[in-house]
Design brief:
Helix content is 72%, strand content 0%. α2 runs antiparallel to α3 and α2 runs parallel beside α8. The protein is mostly helical and 281 residues long. It is built from 9 helices and no strands.
């Protein structure tokens, strides 16, 4: 076993174990830290795949931005050292069973089907190539989606300000060809991470931890895009662009979600979804 293979398995273990701990621990601040390590592990996998630009975007946006926002929301809405309420055993068993069955189904499909790799020459995912194609207006250009995502981010920023600055109401409610082994490994990691996020989303009632689970799901999708781009379509950069757009949309989603969480806490003094029984608050 080569050194590169060992590094890959270490990064995969860091990503999956940290993601699992993030959705199972009852200490919400520890959950944020575990999420941080899981996202760092994904960035390390991008580096291992030699997609340095995507790894840098992952670190800057996710590790340096979204996780900081999540930690910020934890400090604003509750004590960082408090334990989350224990979830019902039936909900945990159902979520675990659903996640396991989904993972087993995905892996069965992966082993029964093959993917056809392109024979076209590969394109280096350098910053220059990514920038030229992203701002291109030809058939392979992504200038229009780039502008659409820019408008979405602007709308998200305005929405965050409007939601977060809402005044506190006077009355507070107190209601309770063949597929290679490398590709199988990457697809297994992404599928496992996806269903870890699904398990966390189904079992958690705290909005911040549910947001963490959504971030794990989105990162599993990004990992899939990069793996397919690396091994099946190296002559295109579509997977890179979809990953960039998902990261940008995830940043907007996290900002809006945290603004909603803060506003919910102001009105209900709680961020438990079972205490939020009204669409307008």
């Amino acid at each position: 076993m080569s050194g590169a293979t060992i590094i890959f398995y270490l990064l995969a273990a860091l990503t999956l174990v940290s993601g699992l701990l993030a959705v199972t621990t009852r200490m919400i601040f520890r959950a944020a830290i575990y999420l941080l390590f899981s996202l760092i592990g994904i960035a390390g996998i991008y580096f291992w795949l030699q997609y340095e630009f995507i790894a840098a975007v992952q670190i800057v946006v996710y590790v340096g931005g979204i996780v900081v926002l999540i930690i910020f929301s934890i400090f604003l809405t509750q004590q960082a050292g408090d334990e989350l309420p224990r979830q019902k055993m039936g909900r945990q068993l159902f979520s675990a069973l659903a996640a396991f069955c989904g993972l087993a189904l995905v892996m069965l499909q992966l082993y029964q089907h093959s993917f056809v790799k392109t024979n076209s020459p590969a394109i280096e995912p350098s910053v220059a190539n990514i920038g030229n194609q992203m701002l291109g207006v030809d058939d392979n250009g992504y200038a229009l989606p780039f502008e659409v995502v820019s408008i979405l981010l602007l709308a998200a920023m305005i929405g965050c300000i409007v939601i977060a600055l809402k005044s506190k109401p006077d009355k507070i409610m107190n209601k309770e060809q063949g597929i290679s082994n490398n590709e199988v490994h990457f697809l297994f990691i992404s599928a496992a991470l996806f269903f870890i996020g699904v398990y966390g989303f189904f079992t958690r009632r705290n909005l911040v931890t549910m947001l963490m689970s959504v971030e794990l799901i989105l990162n599993s999708v990004n990992l899939n895009f990069i793996a397919f781009n690396k091994y099946l379509w190296p002559d295109r950069l579509d997977g890179v662009f979809f990953t960039i757009f998902i990261i940008a949309i995830a940043a907007a989603e996290a900002a809006v979600a945290i603004a909603i969480i803060i506003n919910l806490y102001r009105s209900h003094q709680s961020i438990d979804v079972e205490n939020a029984e009204e669409l307008k608050f």
